[in-house]
Design a protein that fits this description.
The complex is a heterodimer of chains A (321) and B (535). Helix content of chain A is 77%, strand content 0%. Chain A has 321 residues and is mainly alpha-helical. By secondary structure, chain B is α+β, with helices and mostly antiparallel strands. The longest helix of chain B is centred in the first third of the chain and has 24 residues, at 2-25. The chains are: A mainly alpha (321), B alpha+beta (535). At the A-B interface, helix 2, helix 4, helix 6, helix 7 and helix 9 of A face helix 1, strand 10, helix 7 and helix 13 of B.
């Protein structure tokens, strides 16, 4: 198991370095100087000092090696060109809200997906089954941006069932701990639901298929012969059968969740990594773009690694391979 | 037994969700009339404005936290900028106008209890002009040779030349707390902008109570503010979002009381909503196309006039701005005293445009639908900054209008960092962008021939225009230069080195129970200290 883990970690490190290098090349080789003075009356020596402060007066390979060295040795991702703040600080501030949103969305997608899959599998080809299959295809096809906007307009602005923006109410720092938790949850459920919906359809369809398959296997027939109820057969034995693939799907959905979070954060004014990254891209804030890319890469690689490990635990044959 | 426990899980989940949803719905609580919640797209990485991104929203916030020497007035309709007393209660020019002496208020205090002094004013100037600080607007201080401290309350500015813009060059400056910040060398200011939060000392009508990066700033009333009874609100909560539509949604849902910077499409959703008021006001910005006069298509004024006739600017204003803008006829926009009201924008007249083009020698000799003059087809790139969505939509409409007269304009979005050097080097064909008219109305930077290679992207050169802008800049009383500016506008109208597409408006919406909300061109929060809920 340790060898398996080390192998995966080594592959992840190489992948991470490739992502960093490609991103560095992409953002620094794009046309235009991110620190070019917008006002021609700014004295050239002032502009030069700024460039020197951010290390842009060095040749590109030197910039890359310095940057990589600073990251590796002192976890220094550079200073934001826009705000002057350390890029790592900016990302660390906005990462927890994104993780919270993505985590809640993951939960929503599995709860909804497995629940609907179970319901559909209990009565295959019934109206309920057909309805769930059609609905899951529909939500999978709809763009998160549009679903989010509709949710805000109908459930937020129209019916007042959820706050329409932000992670907390105004001046929420005055609330007590329990009230703060409830306040955050009240702001969280709708964006998490919207973000989780698209993948929930996929999971529902897979769960349904897998459970229907299981019922026709020898194990499924044996469980029925022992007199177990349909619910128990599907929930306990059927889901164990579907488990490894469902775990794999979590790893697959990690990048989708992260990219979806960027969209959901914009629609719901959620103060996460998406907003920070979007702003950095628009203003060519290279250090922040690099740090955000690295952060996204780490999250995706970590999710994939976690899924591999979980899968290896569920199915030891994978380690042996 | 097992099945029952399984069934209880969904019930528990539903109950939990109901509790959370119930909490989310509880925004119907009675209004807290001591505070207002304002939606504003901002970034506030540091309280030190000399190293912060120079945005209007940032300035609007810092105006609440720091005192300016003088207070800018929003309305330029009736005359040149009248500066009202701010930190400086009175001021006087020397006879030769090379010195300006200001007397500071005795009752202006920093939040640490120290008085705001002439030393603070001098420190601010030193920081503004220091190369390591690298302030974006350092060039506006070029004419100031020294700032002399006469005594704690008296400070004297020394100028290299007497011009009509001396007050404008110093008046809007927010004075920095030198006594608290001088411990940090200028060379280290940019390396840690967060240091200024740790050493935060303010002097304005509000103080900074709390900050949630990327989400919220809370301002609280400064009890030591010198204006009796102001601010009227105890607290102002500023909320931000990546998209202005998200803020509009929060206003419509009752989660915010005021939203600034509303887009025209969102304004349509707010219009007529019970309990909300929508205010549109001119903001001194205009959008224009700069024709590169060194390129063969744009060398002669007749062709440039034909372009103005060919483009339906009213359609752009109606389609993109839904009426919350107006067609522009001059870079001295219509909300400014020196605007020439007799000068009407060129009308949209496709037939007249075709006739002018033909007269200027443009014709479709090869029958491909595109005009040519000699061997030069009328085909050019029309660049604009990436990210400027309204401008991009407008460029599509310009392309269609020009296509109708046989001109192939190819809109292209370019990263600002890549486009600006191209503009300065005249390495472009035509480009559209926005600009705020300087309050001192000195348009030399846009049209003076010596500014080609700088802000005069069009590389426009006219000896008469050079003479007029020089004459206006040297006048002590701008009103005496009204005729110069009218003459200037008429020449620009005929020559068309730039085509003004539209004059912008800013939109603010707020709860109608809120009184004294009076935004103007200075900013949406200009009189925040006077806002209050109706009794």
């Amino acid at each position: 198991m340790i060898r398996f883990l080390l192998r995966r970690l080594a592959a992840a490190a190489v992948l991470f370095l490739i992502v960093l290098t490609l991103t560095f090349a992409a953002v620094t080789l794009a046309p235009g100087d991110p620190l070019a003075p917008t006002d021609p009356r700014i004295p050239p020596e002032q502009a030069e000092r700024l460039r020197a402060l951010y290390g842009l007066d060095q040749p590109l390979p030197v910039q890359y090696l310095r940057w990589l060295g600073a990251v590796a040795l002192s976890w220094d991702w550079g200073q934001s060109y826009q705000t002057g703040r350390p890029a790592a600080d900016l990302l660390l501030e906005s990462l927890p809200p994104t993780l919270l949103l993505a985590g809640a969305a993951l939960l929503a997608q599995y709860v909804l997906g497995i629940g609907l899959g179970l319901l559909a599998a209990r009565r295959p080809n019934s109206w309920l089954d057909l309805g769930i299959r059609a609905a899951s295809l529909l939500v999978y096809a709809l763009p998160t941006f549009w679903v989010g906007l509709m949710a805000v307009l109908v459930l937020g602005v129209g019916l007042g069932l959820a706050p329409t923006g932000g992670m907390t109410s105004a001046a929420a720092f005055e609330l007590g701990p329990l009230a703060t938790v409830l306040d955050v949850l009240a702001h969280l459920w709708l964006p998490a639901l919207v973000l989780g919906l698209s993948m929930a359809g996929d999971i529902a369809r897979y769960t349904r298929t897998s459970l229907i398959e299981f019922q026709s296997t020898e194990a499924g027939r044996a469980a029925r012969a022992r007199g177990l109820s349909d619910t128990r057969i599907l929930l306990v034995h059927g889901l164990s059968h579907a488990g490894p693939r469902l775990v794999q799907m979590a790893a697959v959905s990690a990048p989708l969740l992260l990219s979806g979070a960027i969209v959901a954060e914009a629609v719901f004014a959620w103060p996460g990594m998406g907003s920070t990254t979007l702003q950095a891209i628009q203003s060519r804030d290279v250090p922040v773009v690099l740090a955000a890319t690295a952060c996204g890469a780490v999250l995706v690689i970590a999710a994939s690694l976690a899924a591999d490990l979980l899968l290896a635990r569920l199915d030891p044959r994978i380690v042996a391979e | 037994m097992y099945d029952d426990s399984v069934l209880s899980l969904p019930r528990l989940a539903v109950a939990g969700l109901a509790a959370v949803v119930g909490w989310g719905c509880s925004s119907e609580a009675p209004r807290d009339t001591t505070q207002v919640r304002v939606g504003l797209r901002f970034d506030y990485p540091t309280p030190n404005e000399l190293i912060a991104p120079p945005t209007l929203a940032y300035a609007a916030i810092n105006n609440q936290l720091y005192l300016s020497l003088m207070e800018e007035q929003g309305d330029l309709r009736d005359g040149p900028l009248p500066w009202a007393p701010g930190l400086a209660e009175e001021w006087e020019f020397s006879e030769d106008r090379l010195q300006l002496t200001l007397r500071l208020r005795p009752d202006a205090l920093w939040s640490d209890g120290q008085p705001v002094t002439a030393e603070n004013v001098r420190f601010t100037w030193l920081a503004q002009t220091d190369l390591d600080v690298a302030w974006n607007y350092a060039s506006s201080k070029e004419s100031i040779t020294d700032v002399e401290v006469i005594d704690a309350r008296t400070v004297r500015f020394h100028f290299s030349a007497a011009t009509g813009t001396q007050l404008d060059d110093i008046a809007p400056d927010r004075v920095l707390p030198g006594h608290a910040w001088e411990a940090r060398p200028f060379a280290e200011w940019r390396s840690d902008p967060g240091w200024f939060f740790e050493h935060l000392v303010t002097s304005g009508p509000f103080r900074l109570a709390s900050r949630t990066p990327g989400s919220e700033l809370v301002l609280e009333r400064n009890p030591d503010h010198f204006e009796a009874g102001l601010p009227r609100l105890e607290r102002v909560v500023l909320r931000t979002a990546a998209e202005s539509t998200a803020l509009t949604n929060q206003l419509l849902a009752g989660e915010l009381d005021v939203v600034t910077g509303i887009g025209a499409r969102d304004a349509l959703r707010i219009e007529g909503q019970p309990g909300l008021r929508l205010l549109a006001y001119p903001n001194r910005q205009f959008t224009f196309v700069s024709w590169n006069t060194t390129k063969p298509w744009f060398r002669d004024p007749q062709t440039r006039r034909a372009l103005a006739l060919a483009i339906d600017r009213q359609a752009i204003v109606d389609t993109i701005w839904h009426g919350y803008a107006q067609v522009g006829g001059s870079p001295i926009i219509s909300s400014v005293w020196a605007h020439d009201p007799d000068l009407k924008p060129w009308p949209h007249d496709t037939a007249a445009a075709r006739a002018e083009l033909a007269e200027a020698g443009w014709m479709d000799a090869d029958g491909d639908g595109i005009l040519e003059r000699g061997a030069v087809p009328f085909r050019f790139e029309l660049a604009t900054f990436a990210g400027a969505d309204a401008r991009w939509e407008a460029m599509q409409m310009v392309q269609a209008d020009l296509g109708a007269v046989g001109i192939d304009a190819q809109p292209r979005r370019v990263d600002p960092n890549a486009l600006i050097p191209r503009l300065m080097g005249q390495d472009f064909d035509a480009a559209a962008f926005g600009l705020a008219i300087p309050t001192n109305l000195d348009l030399g930077f846009l049209f003076h021939s010596e500014e080609a290679g700088s802000f005069n992207y069009a590389a426009y050169a006219s000896p008469e225009v050079d003479r007029l802008v020089d004459a206006f800049a040297s006048r002590h009383d701008p009103l005496e230069g009204r005729d110069d500016l009218r003459r200037l506008q008429r020449i620009l109208h005929e020559d068309q080195p730039i085509l003004v597409l539209w004059e912008s408006m800013s939109l603010v919406a707020f709860d109608e129970e809120l009184e004294s909300v009076a935004p103007n061109a200075v900013g949406p929060l200009v009189n925040l200290k006077e806002w209050a809920w109706r009794e």
